[in-house]
Design goal:
Elements lengths: L1 H10 L2 H10 L4 E2 H8 L3 H13 L3 E6 L2 E6 L4 H11 L6 H28 L3 H8 L2 H8 L8 E7 L5 H5 L4 E8 L2 H14 L4 E5 L12 E7 L8 H11 E12 L6 H6 L8 H10 L3 E2 L3 E3 L6 E7 L3 H6 L1
Parallel strand pairs: 4-5, 4-7, 5-6, 7-8
Antiparallel strand pairs: 1-3, 2-3, 8-11, 9-11, 10-11
This protein binds S-adenosylmethionine.
C-alpha cells in the first residue's frame, strides 16, 4: 500500500508527469531534461529524485553523466506504463516537450556528425587506437553463422574497413552510414580492395531504406556508443533480419575514459551485457551467449542475437 501511495504521489504533479513521458522516449541526462523543460537544474533534479525514489524511473551513472529512463523491471514498471497510458496524446505541453526533445536530439546528432565529417580522413588511424581489428575478427569468426550469408548489412559502416574485412562471409554486402564524407572514403576503399559484391549507401540507422527481412547477417561495429537511442537502432536492425538471421554487436565494454566523450563524441562509456541483451529481447531477438575480448586500452564485447526462425515464431 505504502509503495503504491509513494508512486501515485510522485506522479501526481505536472512536471513529473512530463518527465515520465520524456523518459519513456529514451535515456536522457539531467542537462537534456533541463533544456527540454526550461526549468532550473536543482528543480528538475529534485523531481527526478522523487520519481526514482518511487521506482517509476531508473537512474544509471556512466562516468560523470547520469541517465534516466522509465523503469523497465519490477512491479513499478507496469505502474509507470499504466500512468503513461492515461496521458492525453494531444496535450499542448506534452507536444511541445516532444518537439523540444526532437530538437535536442537533432542538435546532438549534428554534433556527432560534425565530428565524423571532420575526422573522416583520419578515421582509419583513430579506429586503430581502440582495439586491434585483426584480434576482433579472429574472435568473431567462430561466432558467425556456419554458412556464408546471402545478404549482409553493416550499419554505421564508416570508411567501410570492417565490412571489407568481413567480405568473405557474404555473397552481397551493403554498408550504410549517415555521413557523406565517410561514405566517400568507404567507396574508395572498396574500389581499392576490388570487391564487387560490396556497396555502400547513405542511411540513418533509425530508419533504414530497406524492406523488412532483407538481410541474414547484420553488424554494428563500434557504432552504438554514439547512438542517441541504441534500443531503437537495434529494433530497426531486427526489422531487417530474416528469420534465422543473426545480429552481431561489437562495441566497448563499460569503461571510464571520459575524454572519449569530450574529444570523440562518444555518448556512452561502453555497455553491459544485460543492457544489450535487453534491447535484443525487446526487439524479438534471441540473445546468445556474450563474449568478451580483453583489449588495450579498451575491452570489447561481442553480442550476438538471432531472429527466431519462422516455425519458432509460429509456435510462439
Ligand atoms: C565509430 S564510427 C565506426 C565506423 C565503422 N563501423 C568502423 O568500425 O570503423 C561510427 C559510424 O557511425 C555512423 N553513424 C552515426 N550515427 C549514425 C546514424 N544515425 N545512422 C547511420 N550511421 C551513423 C558515423 O557516421 C560513423 O561513421
Amino acid at each position: 500500500m505504502e509503495t503504491l501511495l509513494t508512486a501515485l504521489r510522485a506522479a501526481a504533479e505536472p512536471t513529473r508527469l512530463r518527465l515520465l513521458s520524456l523518459c519513456d522516449r529514451g535515456e536522457l541526462t539531467v542537462s537534456e531534461l533541463v533544456q527540454i523543460l526550461g526549468q532550473s537544474q536543482p528543480r528538475v533534479s529534485r523531481h527526478l529524485k522523487l520519481l526514482c525514489d518511487a521506482r517509476l524511473l531508473d537512474r544509471f551513472r556512466e562516468g560523470s553523466w547520469a541517465f534516466y529512463r522509465l523503469t523497465e523491471q519490477g512491479d513499478m514498471a507496469k505502474m509507470a506504463r499504466d500512468i503513461l497510458s492515461h496521458l492525453p496524446e494531444k496535450d499542448d505541453v506534452m507536444l511541445l516537450d516532444r518537439e523540444r526533445l526532437a530538437q535536442v536530439r537533432a542538435m546532438r546528432a549534428e554534433l556527432a556528425q560534425k565530428y565524423f565529417r571532420e575526422n573522416a580522413a583520419q578515421w582509419d588511424e583513430i579506429r586503430s587506437l581502440y582495439a586491434d581489428e585483426a584480434e576482433i575478427l579472429a574472435h568473431i569468426r567462430p561466432l558467425l553463422p556456419e554458412s556464408p550469408s546471402e545478404d549482409y548489412l553493416d550499419i554505421g559502416t564508416g570508411t567501410g574497413q570492417f565490412m571489407i574485412a568481413m567480405a568473405d562471409f557474404a555473397k552481397r554486402c551493403v554498408g550504410v552510414d549517415l555521413t557523406h564524407e565517410m561514405l566517400q572514403l568507404a567507396r574508395a576503399n572498396i574500389d581499392k580492395a576490388n570487391l564487387r559484391h560490396l556497396t555502400v549507401r547513405q542511411g540513418d540507422m533509425y530508419q533504414l531504406p530497406f524492406p523488412a527481412e532483407s538481410f541474414d547477417l547484420i553488424t554494428f561495429h563500434q557504432v552504438l556508443h554514439y547512438a542517441e537511442d541504441p534500443a531503437q537502432a537495434v529494433a530497426e536492425a531486427a526489422r531487417l533480419l530474416r528469420p534465422g538471421g543473426r545480429l552481431m554487436i561489437i562495441d566497448l565494454q563499460p569503461h571510464d575514459m571520459e575524454m572519449l566523450r569530450e574529444n570523440h563524441a562518444h555518448r556512452r562509456l561502453g555497455f553491459e551485457t544485460e543492457q544489450v541483451h535487453g534491447w535484443c529481447q525487446q526487439s524479438g531477438l534471441c540473445a546468445l551467449k556474450a563474449s568478451n575480448l580483453a583489449g588495450n586500452p579498451l575491452a570489447v564485447g561481442v553480442w550476438c542475437a538471432d531472429h527466431p526462425r519462422q516455425d519458432a515464431r509460429k509456435a510462439a
